[in-house]
């Protein structure tokens, strides 16, 4: 069944705006196309990933992600209704992006990786794994972040290898992705990065561990509370608020006087909030006893 005249006109108007010399107009056109699911809209957005302006490329990727989300929601609707709403199919979204993985321009390949991450489709995994070997730092970084959005443990091994990349930006992106994916292998790899001489890498690894719930993460984050760099301590306290157990409370209580300011918030305030969150999660007599035991251990440690 043909698309409605109004819908087709909207798509054509947006496509026309994508040819404007004004980057803001192209940005707005890409945003508008993200609310349409017509094949022509997808085709135009794929083309916009090669736009010379980075904001337009970014918006095109965001728009493709919105289209994928709308299609996923509609997929659960009545099949009969979908007959009267012609639109692109979910699997074809990744197929449309596949040729751009080989584009000669690095910024186009990076924008393609970003878009694949916004789609959050398992079928994009292989394309993103290919982009991890790209010669361009920005492409590898974008591919790593996108894999984190897919949250597939199939990417864990490749991301761990990226932790030795020559580019700090790429290493930090791989760390972020491993934190999003989680799992035992990812957690162990992140723990190893806590020994990195670069405080920014340690801070990134600490922040990523704050999303991991595997056994042993609480103890590791407690140890990191003693790091010399305030940003590392800040992320450790924040992470304990999300994944820590009651045994971390005595150590966080010691951090209350830490007045180092990171992201406009003192480390001590973050530690106090972490204590509140942990106590809310871990109530009851047994957890109170565990906290008291660890408080005694902390006091003994301070005296020795």
Quick overview of this protein structure:
With 304 residues, the protein is mostly helical.
Architecture overview:
The chain is mainly alpha-helical. The chain has a domain at 183-304: Leucine-rich Repeat Variant (Alpha Horseshoe), CATH 1.25.10. The protein has 18 helices and two strands. It has helices at residues 5-17, 23-33, 39-48, 54-75, 79-83, 90-97, 106-119, 125-131, 137-150, 156-161, 168-181, 184-193, 199-209, 217-224, 230-243, 249-253, 267-281, 285-303; strands at residues 261-262, 265-266. Strand 1 (261-262) and strand 2 form a beta hairpin. Helix 4 (54-75) packs parallel to helix 7, helix 7 packs parallel to helix 9 and helix 12 runs antiparallel to helix 13. It is elongated, with a radius of gyration of 24 Å. Residues 1-5 and 80-84 have low confidence and may be disordered.
Overall CATH architecture of the domain at 183-304: Alpha Horseshoe
**CATH fold annotation of the domain at 183-304:** Leucine-rich Repeat Variant
- Record field, number of beta strands: 2
The CATH class of the domain at 183-304 is Mainly Alpha
Could you tell me the strand content as a percent range? Answer: under 5%
Q: Largest sheet, if any?
A: 2 strands, antiparallel
Question: Could you tell me how far the N terminus lies from the C terminus, measured between alpha carbons in angstroms?
Answer: 80 Å
Give the helices and strands as they follow along the chain. HHHHHHHHHHHHHHHHEEHH
Assign a percent range to the helix content: 55-70%
Shape: elongated
**Protein structure class:** mainly alpha
Rg from Cα: 24 Å
CATH homologous superfamily of the domain at 183-304? Leucine-rich Repeat Variant
Strand order of the largest sheet: 1-2
């Amino acid at each position: 069944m043909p698309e409605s005249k109004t819908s087709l006109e909207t798509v054509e108007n947006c496509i026309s705006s994508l040819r404007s010399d004004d980057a803001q107009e192209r940005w707005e056109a890409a945003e508008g196309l993200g609310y349409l699911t017509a094949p022509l809209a997808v085709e135009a957005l794929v083309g916009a990933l090669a736009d010379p302006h980075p904001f337009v490329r970014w918006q095109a990727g965001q728009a493709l992600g919105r289209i994928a989300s709308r299609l996923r929601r509609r997929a659960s609707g009545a099949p009969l209704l979908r007959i009267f709403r012609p639109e692109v199919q979910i699997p074809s979204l990744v197929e449309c992006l596949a040729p751009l993985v080989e584009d000669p321009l690095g910024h186009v390949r990076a924008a393609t990786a970003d878009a694949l991450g916004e789609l959050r489709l398992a079928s994009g995994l292989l394309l993103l794994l290919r982009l991890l070997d790209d010669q361009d730092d920005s492409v590898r970084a974008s591919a790593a972040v996108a894999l984190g959005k897919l949250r597939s443990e199939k990417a864990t091994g490749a991301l761990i290898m990226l932790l030795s990349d020559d580019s700090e930006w790429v290493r930090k992106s791989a760390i972020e992705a491993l934190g999003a994916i989680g799992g035992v292998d990812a957690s162990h790899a992140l723990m190893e990065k806590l020994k990195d001489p670069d405080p920014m890498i340690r801070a990134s690894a600490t922040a990523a561990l704050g999303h991991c719930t595997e056994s042993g993460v609480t103890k590791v984050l407690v140890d990191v509370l003693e790091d010399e760099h305030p940003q590392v301590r800040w992320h450790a306290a924040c992470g304990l608020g999300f994944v820590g157990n009651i045994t971390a409370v005595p150590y966080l209580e010691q951090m209350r006087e830490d007045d180092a300011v990171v992201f406009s918030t003192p480390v001590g305030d973050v530690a106090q909030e972490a204590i509140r969150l942990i106590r809310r999660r871990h109530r009851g007599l047994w957890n109170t006893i565990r906290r008291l035991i660890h408080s005694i251990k902390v006091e003994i440690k301070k005296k020795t």
